[in-house]
Batch of 2 targets.
Target 1
Amino acid sequence: MPGPFEIDRSRPSAELLEVAKQELRETPEVRAAAVEELRKLLKASDLNFPDDEEFLLIYLRPTKFYPESALKLMRNVAEFNKSYKDLLHNLMPADVKPVFVDHGLINIFTNRDHKGRRLMVVHMGEKWNTKEVTEDQIFRALYTIQKLAVLEPATQINGAVVIYDFKGMGMGHVKAMSTSGAKRLLTFIQEACPLRMKAVHFVNEPMIFNMVWSLFKPFVKEKLNKRMFFHGEKMAKLHEHIPKDYLPSNYGGTLPALDYGGKEWYPVAEQFTEFITKWNSCGFK
């Protein structure tokens, strides 16, 4: 059993494989055939991606084991990395360490929710010192977390949930965000991230949040729009989606208040630099 600040790379349990079968069409036979077909498609393409089974499953699970769809997702990733090469080329954990260790803007919960999904909170208000951390740096940190999350079979199958906390947001935070940054983030989430994004929850939004939402709204597609929920300070509304037993007291839950953060999680990233280097090699031939 992995510790609280570890990546869970354990093989899927029988229960988890049943979820994969029901939601992703995954069976040993379907998996083997899809891996073989994706290898063929990849070899005949202009893409350069590792073709070991563990790596290919990262793309096959979110596309429900349709090889053509997995290849399209790979192409989206390659296009995205090319478009934002200045931010993402050879990006390593050390490049975003201050965002995790010094500022604690992003926190992954040590527990999963009632559906086995990874939970993450992103602080976009009072914890965000816009003079020290830019919008670009936050994105680079989120992109780095994705590289680690895809290593977990349980997260590949069950997906992830993100909570955006806007407590204490002021006009300075609004000015630190841009239309181009919003477009980049939503393109990543909707087209170039091989993770099942199951829900995005917004909490503690102040009145000026409408100005932020106006940046993002034009780029939100229907599928993601149905998975976005706005709760304000009403944590009871959040509990309709994530029961209190799976949330810390910071969000009206019964678990202890968060006493850990990016500082505790950062060493995990350093443990997987070999995989991250492998991930960074993906793109066009």
Target 2
Amino acid sequence: MVIRIALVQLKIAGAREKILKNAVDLIRIAKKEKFANVVVLPESFNIPYSEADFAANAEAIPSGETSKALSEAASHFGVHVVGGSFVERDRDGKLYNTCTVWGPDGALVAKHRKVHLCDTNIPEKLVVNETSVFTRGDSYTTFYVGETKIGLGICWDMRFPEFAAAYRADGCDLLIYPAVCDCYTGELHWELLARARAVDNQVFVAFCSPARDPHADLVAYGHSLVVDPWGKVIQKGTEFQEIVVADLILKTLPEARSQIPVLQQKRADLYELVKKK
């Protein structure tokens, strides 16, 4: 089996209605012209990433405007849509950075609340304080495309190897991370992290970024990419709006795992991964 994944490196600027229309148009192109099975949007895809604007743009799931647009797009075009992330407001008023997944019938099949919130302070380069806005998610999130089990993370989740290893232990073959990574740490770590998560766990890994907007509060690195279980980058974008398409040749998984059987060689007498939830 082959999964064709399309990473929509979306330009995120202007009013939410305009951004949603652009996203739906690109989902259509990814399915109808690129023939993708799975279409992925970036983190904070429906508004520019700005801590000052998150609360005002929060929505309920699945009744909000963004959920409805994603559900209709998935159903109309008959494709799995990994809806990047947007700000969710729950019944208690808490805010979450949440990724929704919609099946080809338009049904909500998964919802991932960002587990690891990004607090960084790099002098003169980057200050982010997500814990001042969001509540942390507390669960793993998986869904299936055919027989392929897929694990979800959002941006900062990618920096935690234990989280990815827990997904692999749970049988995932593909990890998808919508993300907004800044240019400074993106140049240092973006590809490195994707390749590390892939080769450590012998899975496919996809990072989906927004297109770069030099006028944004947080300027995204771009360069959405897909990595195979050998740690090879099989497709990578530029910094501009585009659709990055890659074919995931699933037979690569048993080949890598049988030829380099590191997961069978772990020393449970010395160390062990404990999945608590």
